[in-house]
Amino acid sequence: MKTPRLLLATAAVAALALVGSVAAANACGKNGYSYAGLGAPTAGSGISAIITGLGPFSIPNGHIAGWVGVGGPGEGPGGTDEWLQIGLSGFPGFYTDIYYEVARPHQAPVYHEVVANPAADHPYRVAVREDRPNWWRVWLDGKPVSPSIHLPKSHDQFMPIATAESWDGGTGGACNNFLYSFQRVKIAHRPGGLFHSFTGGYRIASAKTTLQRTGTAFIAAEGTSPSIRTLLFRSLLLLRP
Question: Which pTM was predicted?
Fold first, then answer.
């Protein structure tokens, strides 16, 4: 189901991460966006993870999200925008979704609501995978939740990403707080192939976010309130071998 809610446009995360950091243009990151996640070291045909949103969140404006996906702004043919992602999102007023979003060249991104108000603190297994060259699908808990989606000239071009994201709504005001657990992050190396453990890769981080990784799992957080710090400490215990 399509929804007119504010699109979670990935806002150049792939390009910014490749240069190693997200420059801070205001309190919450470049253009009000901040990130905490991992990018695959090479191009791939999919990515999966078990994502849990660990509340409570504080979202004064804009949105937060934890997602896996491929592509990004300028990553499509001729520098066009092209991406596909699936994950958890949150908006002011405690409204949450499981969603997927697709951007095709020369078209506006489209946000699809998969599950409205999913259970809090519940793990969800999400995945993006290439079925055959240039055709992709998104999955939730082992079941497809989208049709096969054509992303022109995408085969062997995208480096998969797993990340948390926040946008301050363009206000330049208070940053949103988030805390996401990403477990069993895996990569597919060929269309229709099996997922294999995520190794190596590069960090996606912003000035006010925290990223703690152990193997194929990581905790992504933004916020310094006592509740966030307490939850972060407890969550880090989950990453211990």
Answer: 0.85
